[in-house]
Design a protein that fits this description.
- 4 copies of one chain form a homotetramer.
- By secondary structure, chain A is mostly helical.
- Chain A has one domain (about 5-115): Methane Monooxygenase Hydroxylase, Chain G, domain 1, CATH 1.20.58.1000.
- Chain A has 3 helices and 2 strands; from the N terminus they run E-E-H-H-H.
- The first copy, chain A, has a two-stranded antiparallel ribbon with strand order 1-2.
- In chain A, strand 1 (about 5-15) and strand 2 form a beta hairpin.
- In chain A, helix 1 (about 30-55) packs antiparallel against helix 2 and helix 2 runs antiparallel to helix 3 (about 95-115).
- Chain A starts with 6 loop residues before the first strand and ends with a helix.
- At the B-D interface, helix 2 and helix 3 of B face helix 2 and helix 3 of D.
């Protein structure tokens, strides 16, 4: 089975051409709308935080909303990671060889970053 | 020394009148612009995440940016908490009595929420 | 390829017969001595904490050692998880079918517990 | 009010004389037995982990117990921190001056370490 390999595109990021990995089918492709909906809600939470600070709201109440936004971001991360394991990593494992090991190592590093952040 | 007590206002939140605590001098009052700057940057990071998902960027690259936004939110939380301890809690402790104990307990709960999120 | 399925044994745990999953080859089988060495060191850290408390050592110094022990436990968790993905989950993915999905879901739940603890 | 200042003792740590802060009254002095009880239970959890690994128990079951031990360590940290805020930091705040600022900064750093571990 063919592993989805990222294509390398040159796309302008902030006016500067930069190499980025764009994929035909990232792990989250079937959940894209759900992920975007979560991210828009988190953007709303962060704008809500700015309003709270602007209104001199009580520190502890602001902190509670920061914790809520942090948890929401962690949930997005867990969803992306699950999709990645179930698709990108699983496909690489079925293909076997170096690609399998590389994808497993990369996933482990992402999990470590997540646990420590 | 007078403890800064939050005033209770009725302000409309999402169309519903809701009691919120607004303070003349929240702990972060002197850092307000710095906090807002951080929050605006985090809002930009979350919008950047939506662009990445829209462009089918590679899962691991998206995850890395989610971790960065999470760490940025935690830094805001730590700043708010420090300001809260150094002002609101410190003022209550100097005044003593029940207010001091209440503020210390409230801060402890906020720290626990932060550690567990 | 055969997936390593856990055998169900009845072993006495604290005097009560309890079903536990023992495996011929858990994911960490090749790293067993390394894992045990880390766990013995953590046990030593926790005993060191008891000594510090017994000696009335300064709160912040005790807290620093608690953070060190927590990070050490997280490192063990990450190692166990990596071994689990690279062996148990990878084997199930190669076999395919329901077992693959079950193992991926189970791993996702373990990652979520880890991120939130 | 007198702030509890740590005395500096020379005690042998691992055969080497090392300066350590021992206090007449650390913040946790009234909770010492409760803290020790929690630490002894965590030591038992870590020994239980070694038994599980020795018995080739299933990775996910071992991971669940690692998460439990991690959460237990975090609870000890939160208790130590609360006691520290309510006693050492509060006493320094009442005394005022540089000592107050130093203790608040030190507590903030400990909270940051905790949140990020």
């Amino acid at each position: 089975m063919a592993v989805a390999r990222p294509a390398i595109y040159l796309i302008p990021v902030g006016g500067i051409e930069r190499q980025v990995k764009k994929m035909a089918h990232p792990g989250y492709v079937d959940e894209k709308e759900a992920v975007q909906k979560r991210l828009r809600r988190i953007e709303g939470q962060v704008r809500g935080l700015q309003r709270m600070v602007d209104e001199d709201r009580y520190c502890i109440d602001v902190l509670e909303q920061v914790s809520a936004a942090t948890r929401a971001l962690q949930s997005v991360a867990l969803q992306l990671l699950n999709d990645h394991l179930a698709h990108c990593v699983a496909d690489a494992v079925k293909s076997g060889g170096d690609e399998a090991k590389a994808k497993l190592d990369e996933a482990s590093e992402a999990i470590a970053r997540l646990v420590r952040s």
